[in-house]
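Q: Convert this sequence to structure tokens.
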Amino acid sequence: MILSGLAAAAALGLATAEVGDGWDLSVDPAHDRIGAGVAFEGGVHLTVQCERGSLDVDLGGMSATAGSSFDLETTRSDGVARVSWWRQHPDAPVLTTSNVRQARFFRAGGRMVFSSPTGDARPGRLEMPLPTDSTNLDRVLTACRLPLVDPRDALVDVGDLLLERPRLDIRGNVSRGGDLSRVKAIMVQLSCIVRDGALAECQSDFEVPSMPREVAAAARLGRATAEGANGHVLKLSDPAAAEGRVVNISVTGLQIVRQPF
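A:
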């Protein structure tokens, strides 16, 4: 699926749109929410938001088929590029599933180019200037307890060498004893290195939910999920070229929350 809004937005003059010196900051203490955003002509906006410990990165005002998922390449003004996986649900913004690294990628600022992968049947391209002052964006990352830099951000993403996204399961999710339990959704964002065509050196970069009282339990699931991902064989178009690249994966499932009688 390709964002038809890329071509349409460019026609509206977004390629020459200018923004202020910094990201616009919004704070909503009642809902434990803080966000940083940039608005462009034509109703398109980019938002990075932390709400109750969960980070989201979305492109609003873009047109895409509801329920679709697709790769989108982002190239910074310094020439560094990364490919990330995005999806859209009905009546919702376009969200990336590798939001932590994508948000940090935006910190450099300057002109960002969003484009569909090479060879796509309906190619699209959109240039958007982002603020070079990342102060407010940094506040959002810090609110979600995320580091502003990570060594793996400098690695080349495996990107379009993946023929199929890895399908992994949440691990270590067991309720013990006679406690009553409730179930809630959880997401673990992993980063792994490609070694001999398989996932290796996997680590959990972020877990949702990540509210203070749930941090320890979510972190345990994150570690278990990362350990379980090691050795997962990937479907690659060029295994040799993929060697040593990073893979960012969002794993979703259910968390069993123990409750005493």
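The first helix runs from residue 4 to 11.
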